[in-house]
Specification:
elongated, two-stranded antiparallel sheet, binds ligand 4H7, five-stranded parallel beta sheet, alpha/beta, 7 helices, Trp Operon Repressor, Chain A, about 220 residues
């Protein structure tokens, strides 16, 4: 899976080189190609934004600079996604579908966003990560890369995917590890029993109970 990221702040993506995702990059299961939009400015001061027509606060990213950045990487098979609060809210089903793509181009707006004309020309899909305001599309792009990469073969251990939240429509059962007693609290007996079926049954019950209490809306679907 290849992710091209068009951004004014490629350094913000350093954290993605850590942990499970970092390993996936090392193993070349995923490829994250960062494109600095500023490199495509033809202005002597490397200007990438300008004041909005019609007035108002802030700056708007210029269409020609963004278009040249896009042109440097565009491929027919790639899906271009604009991370924006106006997009469809990302959920696990969308993540799963995106993981079937081979090549995703993520366009990150900063400041007041990007000139509408270039968006109309290049964007296939607009996606939001939730109803709140951020300073840029970089964090949403990282959220998308993380969530989608988990579905790429080899990134996770084989059985991790089906057991988790949302995949079965339920929240996850609680986890315990050593020590067996922590501040007087013992690990639930059934988990020490080695009785696989009983454990599965207990976990399913807990999942249901937790979903009922914390996210009853999930059960109505
Ligand atoms: C694109 C267009 C995504 C990117 C507009 C991005 C939240 C999300 C941004 C904007 C984002 C999300 C313009 C929205 C300035 C905020 C004050 C960057 N915020 N901006 N507005 N929920 N911000 O996925």
């Amino acid at each position: 899976m290849k992710f091209d990221v068009l951004t004014l702040f490629p350094e913000m993506f350093e954290p993605v080189k850590q942990s499970i995702l970092g390993k996936a990059v090392e193993k070349e299961l995923i490829n994250i190609n960062l494109i600095n939009i500023r490199d495509f400015s033809e202005d002597k001061h490397k200007k990438v934004d300008d004041t909005p027509y019609g007035g108002g606060a802030g700056m708007v990213m210029m269409p020609d600079v963004v278009y040249r950045a896009y042109n440097s990487i565009k491929e027919k098979d790639a899906k271009v996604i604009y991370m924006s609060p106006q997009g469809k809210t990302l959920n696990q089903k969308m993540v799963e579908n995106l993981s079937k793509e081979n090549h995703i181009i993520l366009l990150c707006g900063h400041y007041e966003g990007i000139d509408q004309r270039v968006l109309d020309k290049i964007v296939d899909e607009e996606i939001s990560i939730g109803d709140y305001v951020l300073t840029g599309g970089e964090l949403p792009a990282m959220v998308l890369i993380d969530s989608v990469s988990r579905y790429v073969t080899g990134v996770l251990k084989p059985d991790s995917i089906q057991e988790e939240s949302f995949s079965n429509g339920l929240l996850e059962y609680p986890q315990y590890t050593r020590p067996e007693v922590f501040k007087g609290e013992k690990v639930p007996e059934v988990l020490l029993s080695g009785h696989h079926e009983k454990i599965q049954e207990w976990r399913k019950e807990k999942s249901l109970e937790i979903t009922k209490n914390k996210r009853p809306d999930l059960l109505k679907k």
